[in-house]
Amino acid sequence: MLEMSRDGWLAVALAVVLLGSVGLFAVDVGTSTPDPVEFDDTVQVGLSLEEQFALENDVKLPRAQVFYSKYSYVVGYQGVERFVDERAQPTHTDRFGYPLAVYVTDYSAVDVELREDGYPVADENPPWIDAESAWFVAGSDARSPAGETVVAFSDRDDAEAFASAHGGEVLAWNDVLESEFDIDDAEVVRDRLDDRLAEADETSTQADTLRDRPVSVVVGEDADTIQAAVDAAPANTTVAVPAGRYDERVEIDKPITLAGEGDATIAGPGWGSVVTVTANRTAVTGFEITGVGDETAGTDVVPDHGPEERSGRGEGWDEELTEHYAGGDAGVAISGGAEGLVADVSIRTPSNGVLLYESPDTVVRNVTVDGAEISREGRAGVNAIYSAAVIEDSTIRNGRDGVYTHESADIVIRNNTVVGNRLGVHLMHTSDAVIVGNEFREQDATGIYVMTGPERIAIVDNTVRDTDTGIIPDSDDSYIASNVVEGTQVGIKQNTASSVIEGNVVAGNDVGVEERSVLPTNRIVRNDFVGNRDHVTAANGPLRIWSDDGAGNYWQGATALSTIGERPSSYSPTDSVHERLHLTDGTAMLARAPALEAISGFEGMVPGLRTDAVIDSAPTCEPNNPTLLERTAWADQAWTCEQATG
């Protein structure tokens, strides 16, 4: 624990006040209007990487780029409507300042047409024009991967002609700024969560009906081997496998249920996948599976698809990834088999446990996977490629990735226990995923790792403990809530944009949150920070304000900060004095020191003039999530409001 005398602390506080007042200056934005830049040189928001990769070269989506008075980078918005929506957020001006210039793409300068899906196409990129001089068509048939989009023209006649051909209304810039658009942002993710989980319940219930098929063949009575029984079974029936050991590999190419009874073991030869499925509505239940091959990459289960069957995925950008990750051996490998079920199965594997390739609406439930003892080896407990599956109530131990996904939008991963892997859940190019109610322990690297900038991820009600990094949610428009992150080197590596991070408990970590976001567009409120060595560290970037509409977070050490007038004192976990309040005795006396009151008041008055910092202008005096906090070892270190004011 760091220790410092009362006089020493007050000297540091006074020095901070004096140095801060000397270094402040007013930003002179000048009178000249900045010129537009290449869109690739902007900080972009509005589309995920996979959505951008999938666009064909002739698709020219509407864009905007904005220069701000308080933000040192040009922001590139994938859609005028996205800028309008962001601008309407209550703290937008506090974070960015006011727009110095707004440019939009000018479709008067190109021959634009709409594809059948509504995407604008043109032979060349539209040039930039000042938004104030443009005319906009809103509510037309024009679309982007994110939904409706606004098309801009420098000539009003062109705008009128476009609206006549494709619908919509012609608006001036001020009218566009007053418009409302349907944006699938983080609040939409939150509001849809119950519906998403209900849909997963329906998928799970539907998969359970595969257990009810009549038995047509019994191994040992009607056929000597499992494979012979599968070959003989009519579609939509059950092959019953009595207890015992069966040394074979099984291939299923029809919709049947393969059901083990008692202690039934399928032992593969140590090469290849043990059970391979290539049919819809197939179930594999009630087995122990061993003898899986150790091949972790390849194309064994990947069909020879032509380019027409890959339409929408881009031209080759993900083929190498597919060949690498979707191949390899597995205990159960399902390729092109939708609406399947793998349940009550135990798998020992040096590669994959369950491999899903183009197998949407498959349910993996109550599956236990024991992988390679060395986490850098092996592959994944459940490996989902182009498969919007439901993975639930399973236990995955000791592998490279507990659950790996690639372009498996809408996947639901819930109520699993994931222990001792390299990564617990590893999302690649997977938007709209739901990760709910899981327990992650002792991962070598990261509990939940969202990579490649997807969108609309829900990470809710998970517990991550005793791992190097708890959660890395590198995504936009995501909802991260009610998680417990405890005992990590870094609790959350925060690099999201336009996301809501609320109601989490971050306790007992070396670093609670490592703030790395370049766009200060997240709403981070009602979280509890207790027992961390550093509650927050911030990389180079803009000021981040972690409060919204009077709601802030609970910070151990900040509860005794006094108020200035009727305004609650602000707290900065990245401030050289504030960051140590919870690490020393005498916090109450120090927090009430006049020098610190001056710091709090000064920060509250000029929040836009600091960078590389996090400021909470409305810290709470007691934890926001006491029930979650009680699940950690740090609840007794948190103050109540009565203690804070006593």
From TrEMBL:
Gene3D superfamilies: 3.30.70.2050, Single-stranded right-handed beta-helix, Pectin lyase-like. Keywords: Repeat. InterPro entries: N2O_reductase_NosL, NosD_dom, PbH1, Pectin_lyas_fold, Pectin_lyase_fold/virulence, SCF-Subunits/Alg-Epimerases. Residues 302-316 have a biased composition (Basic and acidic residues). Signal peptide: none annotated. SMART domains: PbH1. It comes from the Archaea. The keyword Cell inner membrane does not apply. Residues 294-316 are annotated as: Disordered. Residues 387-557 form the Periplasmic copper-binding protein NosD beta helix domain. Coiled coil: none annotated. This is Nitrous oxide reductase accessory protein NosL/NosD. It comes from Natronorubrum aibiense.
